[in-house]
Amino acid sequence: MTTRPLYYEEPYIQDAQCHILNIQNRGRQMVTFELDQTIFYPEGGGQPSDQGDVTTATGAIKVQAVHHQGERIIHEGILVGSVEPGQEGKATLKWSRRHKNMRVHSAGHLLHDILMTTYPDLQAIRGNHGDKAFLEYSGTLEPSIRETLERTVNEAIQADIPIRTWDSSYEEVIAICKFVPSNLPKNKELRVLRIGDFDPMPDGGVQVRSTKEIGRVAIHHIINEDDKVMIRYGVAGPT
What we know:
Elements: E1 4-5, H1 6-9, E2 15-27, E3 30-35, E4 37-38, E5 52-55, E6 59-69, E7 72-81, E8 88-93, H2 95-118, E9 123-128, E10 134-138, H3 146-158, E11 163-168, H4 170-176, E12 190-195, E13 201-202, E14 216-225, E15 228-236
């Protein structure tokens, strides 16, 4: 049975009813399990997985990590009491962690979009949207642009630009996105992100609704090495 990804259908939902499909004991109270539907985002696309709790009538699981295993969504956690397959439970998200990750992820995409309008010769390599967030490109940037770039990004944040995400086919992604990673699957539904009038791009993460919700971006460092540039950033301030 495929797990229904509630985190895409309603990214702001913080708790939901669910059923335990299966559960396996890994020792020392550690378990892996699957749900019929989940609010927990599985790690991917540079965004960390969610954490939280699943509580049943007989016990609870403290969810520590979530990941994809092929088409399956596997939850890992610490078992307290007893939880059995078939039981109904209540999933509760650690919302402070999820919302921070959403803000950081959306900030990274906004930063990327602004960079692409000014420095189109940069070629994206990878990014991380967790506690030590960064974007990495092939090319170089003068570290002296840090303050100007930070100011430009924060002006865009205050402009309250809408952020849209939607399901899409591989054919649509190819047609509308300028950059398409070579490892994107061709036989499954994909996700697309677009910030305002910037170019759309494929992205499997969970985003905030508008740039203003990001709060404020701080660009910590611009580091050039071996014809690559890494931009380290973070978010702060009110949301």
